[in-house]
């Protein structure tokens, strides 16, 4: 079986994904639009830009978008789907994912993360190292739950929102779409769409 996986984005996040993919038995090839200005990331060569991947797509069993920016992740994911390139979900062996949870395609679930029963994770989400998504949470597409953040039971997070590192969200809270929760926040009231909020308790600071 072809286990050659394209990783798009030669970033720090890309390096973590590359190692995760290797742990899962894939052979990693990077693609990045900075090519040919950048031809290598650590010991991994960069094979070309995104168009090069499209040209050689039949060489690969799929691709992972290793880009933190949700809008860019969304755009590239759409192009991959248009090109009929599969976007597998990668789950680290030390992550704990309930058999009753649903995780859509293109997600990465990093080391030590927990996704508990009856939670639903949208497309191309990042559940980062040691993040906790408790029972009955609903995450839209392209969400990022940063390292060491915890969503209590029944929390919803709208598409393209970002919960910053080391934050916690009280049970049944709703965070809107395209919103950003700053690092180290405690969210105890609902957060609307398109805002940045931070602090303990988290307050809306600005419109995005
Ligand atoms: C594997 C990984 O690396 S995953 C990435 C993890 N990274 C994160 O989670 C980062 C999340 N980002 C943040 O927390 C950012 O600080 C943001 C987005 C909330 C704000 O960023 P900016 O809009 O650039 O704000 P800026 O840095 O200019 O700060 C503005 C003010 O808010 C304060 N502030 C910024 N972030 C926070 C925060 N999280 N909590 C409390 N205060 C904050 C600053 O101290 C500053 O205060 P001052 O005006 O009194 O000096």
Description:
This protein has about 210 residues and is α/β, with parallel strands linked by helices. The chain has three helices and 24 strands. The protein has helices spanning about 10-25, 50-55, 70-80, and strands at about 5-10, 25-30, 40, 45-50, 60-65, 90, 95, 100-105, 110, 115, 120, 125, 130-135, 140, 145, 150, 155, 160-165, 170, 175, 180, 185, 195-200, 205. The strands form four sheets. Strands 6-9-12-15-18-21-23-24 form an eight-stranded mixed beta sheet, covered by helices on one side. It has a six-stranded parallel beta sheet with strand order 7-10-13-16-19-22, with no helix packed on it. It is globular. Bound molecules: acetyl coenzyme *A (ACO).
Gyration radius, rounded: 17 Å
Uncertain runs: none
Order of helices and strands: EHEEEHEHEEEEEEEEEEEEEEEEEEE
Class by alpha and beta content: alpha/beta
Kindly state the percentage of residues in helix: 10-25%
Which molecules are bound in this entry?
acetyl coenzyme *A
Gross morphology is globular
Strand content: 25-35%
Please sum up the structure shown.
Keywords: Acyltransferase, Repeat, Transferase. By secondary structure, the protein is of the alpha/beta class. Helices cover 15% and strands 31% of the residues.
Helix and strand layout, with pairings?
Elements: E1 4-8, H1 12-23, E2 27-31, E3 40-41, E4 44-48, H2 50-55, E5 62-65, H3 70-82, E6 90-91, E7 96-97, E8 102-103, E9 108-109, E10 114-115, E11 120-121, E12 126-127, E13 132-133, E14 138-139, E15 144-145, E16 150-151, E17 156-157, E18 162-163, E19 168-169, E20 174-175, E21 180-181, E22 186-187, E23 195-198, E24 203-207
Parallel strand pairs: 1-2, 1-5, 2-4, 6-9, 7-10, 8-11, 9-12, 10-13, 11-14, 12-15, 13-16, 14-17, 15-18, 16-19, 17-20, 18-21, 19-22, 21-23
Antiparallel strand pairs: 3-4, 23-24
